[in-house]
Amino acid sequence: MLYLYQAMGLATLVLWIYCLFDAITTPDEAARNLPKVLWVIIVLLFPLIGSLFWLVTGRPQRAAPRATGRPPGTAANPDDDEEFLRRLRERAEEQRRNAPKKAPDDEE
Question: Residue ranges of the domains in the chain?
Answer without folding.
Answer: 2-58
